[in-house]
């Protein structure tokens, strides 16, 4: 997941540029008094959903294009075109968001999720619609209280499509939001599982690797927006506008199937 901004000045000296963020690359292509912003998915395993918002300062500037796209592996889409019919110039800016996955994905209603930790049980630190951070887009996520260094397991079979393991810090500063280490797994139904707040450099998998339910992914940690060591798990589909929708997970536990466990509940194998 990402939200990145880029700024450039329009002039006769503008050159083609490329900026990559994971599998997604944004291309700036000047031609005949206009600039095209295109997106390319250079990944091999998952679609990506991307949105672009363009801001211009020149009053005669015109911005056209869909501003969004869903790109299969290897796919390309032209997202925006900036032109100056009067031949003027000025500053312009684009902001973009992207997510692994496609908005059309819907979860398999029969899917069961194994508990994603190598322990007999764990207490739910924050459940669905939790007051700390599980509101809105993250409303169906579950946080498990885990000691740092606990093996984190795949809750469901799929393929690893994203990894970030270079973060060492954690805390409740707003700058830490979205800055955790994480593993993303694409399921057969197109939904994506995100395992977050992992320990630095603890990955046990690589991008492109198939995983079965119960396979080790990484170690739990306390990175990103976090008050204490825990594991964040969510299953999502992107939204066309750049957001995401999370889906309920049916956990296979010793007490039977549990969906949307509440804070303080202990789930056991």
From TrEMBL:
Domain of life: Bacteria
Positions of the M23ase beta-sheet core domain: 140-236
Residue stretches spanning the membrane: none
A Pfam family matched in the record: Peptidase_M23
InterPro entries per record: Cell_wall_metabolism_enzyme, Dup_hybrid_motif, M23ase_b-sheet_dom
An annotated Gene Ontology molecular function: metalloendopeptidase activity
Protein name per UniProt: Peptidase family M23
Organism of origin: Palleronia pelagia
């Amino acid at each position: 997941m990402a939200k990145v901004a880029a700024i450039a000045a329009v002039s006769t000296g503008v050159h083609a540029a490329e900026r990559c963020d994971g599998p997604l690359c944004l291309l700036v292509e000047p031609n005949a008094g206009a600039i095209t912003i295109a997106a390319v998915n250079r990944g091999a395993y998952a679609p990506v959903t991307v949105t672009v918002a363009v801001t211009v300062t020149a009053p005669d500037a015109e911005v056209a294009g869909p501003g969004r796209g869903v790109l299969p592996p290897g796919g390309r889409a032209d997202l925006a075109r900036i032109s100056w019919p009067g031949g003027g110039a000025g500053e312009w800016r684009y902001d973009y968001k992207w997510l692994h996955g496609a908005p059309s994905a819907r979860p398999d209603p029969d899917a069961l999720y194994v508990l994603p930790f190598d322990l007999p049980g764990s207490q739910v630190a924050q459940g669905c619609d939790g007051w700390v951070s599980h509101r809105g887009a993250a409303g169906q996520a579950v946080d498990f209280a885990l000691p740092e260094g606990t093996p984190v397991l795949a809750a469901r079979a799929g393929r690893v499509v994203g990894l970030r393991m270079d973060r060492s810090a954690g805390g409740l500063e707003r700058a830490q939001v979205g800055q955790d280490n994480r593993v993303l797994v694409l399921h057969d139904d197109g939904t994506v599982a995100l395992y977050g707040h992992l320990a630095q450099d603890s990955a046990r998998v690589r991008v492109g690797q198939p995983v079965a339910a119960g396979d080790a992914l990484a170690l739990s940690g306390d990175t990103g927006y976090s008050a204490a060591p825990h594991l964040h798990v969510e299953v999502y589909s992107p939204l066309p506008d750049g957001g995401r929708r999370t889906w309920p997970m049916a956990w296979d536990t010793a007490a039977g199937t549990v969906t949307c466990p509440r804070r303080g509940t202990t789930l056991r194998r």
